[in-house]
Design goal:
This protein has about 140 residues and is of the alpha/beta class. About 5% of the residues have low confidence.
Length: about 140
């Protein structure tokens, strides 16, 4: 049932709980995990043009570190892993990549207690509301 698991990551240490959940599910089902980092390009709207390439390079480096960290932990657990970095609106990119890889499950973190997310909607809320595949969320610590 769960052969392809999508694991979006933001690279924070609190994502370890989500990685462990994905490893447990994938290990039991011999599934492959696709680790995705999305560079939120909406932040570029206010940047001066000459700054965009430097900021993008820095964010790509953060994305590589984030996907490598998760992939290493998963591979140590004997899980087959594919990594990807995308650029765009995080919820849109997670959903599009999930469709592209024909994911059977998305497992991702969610943070509670941030009133701005309750007003505007978090990435995980948008993914849960719009996904065509099951989404498993893990509450992450608000203290990082």
């Amino acid at each position: 049932m769960f052969d392809r698991i999508l694991l979006p990551t933001d690279g924070t240490q609190s994502m370890d709980a989500v990685v462990e959940t994905a490893a447990d599910i994938a290990g039991r089902r011999e599934a492959e995990v696709y680790v995705l980092y999305v560079i939120d390009d909406r932040a570029f709207l206010t940047l001066q043009d000459e700054m965009k390439s430097d900021v993008l390079a820095e964010l790509e480096g953060e994305g590589e570190a984030a996907t490598d960290r998760a992939a290493t932990r998963l591979r140590e657990a004997g899980i087959e892993v594919t990594t990807a970095i995308r650029q765009g609106d995080p919820a849109d990119e997670i959903l599009a990549y999930g469709e592209e890889i024909d994911a059977d499950l998305v497992t991702m973190g969610t943070r509670r207690g941030d009133y701005t997310n309750n007003l505007m909607g978090s990435v995980s809320q948008k993914v849960v509301a719009r996904a065509s595949m099951p989404v498993l969320t893990t509450n992450l610590s608000a203290d990082e």
